[in-house]
Amino acid sequence: VEYKIRILKCGTTAAPGPEVYYLSDFEKWYPLNCYLYLITGGKKSIVVDTGCRDVNEFNAIIVPSYGPQGEKAKFVVKPEEEPRALLLKAGVNPNDVDILILTHLHYDHVSNVALFPNADVYISRRGWTSVMAPRHRQLAPAILFPRDVYAYLFDKKWDRVHLVEDEKILPDIKVFWIGGHTQCSQAVAVNTKKGTVIITGDTVFTYKNIEENIPVGLSYSLLDCLDAMQRIREEAAIVLPGHDPETLRRFPSAKIP
Ligand SMILES: [Zn+2]
């Protein structure tokens, strides 16, 4: 199957230089977008990631942690950027989504899993383990790793949760563990008319990360980030990074192909 991908911008934020580019650009802040993706063209409708929720509550905690310039780190989600509104506008009711793939388990990617009551959910097995039983407890802070969402997945949703490892979800869609940004990070490779598109999650924040081989600063493992970027460069015809506003400049129609 040659799938089509819609790139749906579901919010904005910004991050200081060293968070985006490891130990670089200490004076700079970079504007970032949040995304989810709708994949169509096969028999099933597929969504990758789910965006943010309750941004005011999230900002109340996150903004002060960034110090004097913290206001810049605020997440903003306009009404038309709410995941439900975005999907309805793209012609898909969230109730009709068959498959939900999570690139990782961070707040800005998993918060709205309950919006997809009829979807099977695909999570990295290694990733789920890393969050439920972290080697170091401080690596799973509650603000970034929303417990109630995991409780929902483990309780009401459990029969539909698939813990996966380097495998095909459908004949032309595969996931593979990449780690790096978090230990729960997996990439999604999708066959399209333009070749293999890889949705990287946040192990690659921006095109500059992967094109200049600079790992993200917000990383649990620089080595895994570099390994991941090497593999993604080898396998991808098109890369869709986690948070780059540049994505919508390279794909102004927000569609692939
Ligand atoms: Zn993110």
Output the keywords.
257 residues; alpha/beta; 5-stranded mixed β-sheet; binds zinc ion
Description of the molecule:
With 257 residues, this protein is of the alpha/beta class. Helix content is 26%, strand content 26%. The radius of gyration is 17 Å and the shape is globular. It binds zinc ion. Zinc ion is lined by residues 106, 108-109, 202, 242-243.
Shape: globular
Count the DSSP helices: 9
Strand content: 25-35%
CA-CA gap between termini:
13 Å
What is the number of beta strands?
Answer: 12
Order of helices and strands: EHEEHHEHEHHEEEEEHHEHE
Helix fraction by DSSP (H/I, runs of at least 4)? 25-40%
Give every kind of bound small molecule, once each: zinc ion
Secondary-structure content class? alpha/beta
Unreliable stretches (pLDDT < 50, length at least 5) are none
Report the C-alpha radius of gyration, rounded.
17 Å
Q: Order of strands in the sheet with the most strands?
A: 6-5-4-3-2-1-12
Describe the largest sheet.
7 strands, mixed
Averaged pLDDT, please? 97
Chain-wise SSE layout:
Elements: E1 4-16, H1 17-20, E2 29-40, E3 46-48, H2 55-65, H3 83-89, E4 99-101, H4 107-110, E5 120-124, H5 125-132, H6 147-154, E6 161-164, E7 167-170, E8 173-177, E9 186-192, E10 195-199, H7 207-211, H8 222-235, E11 238-240, H9 246-250, E12 255-256
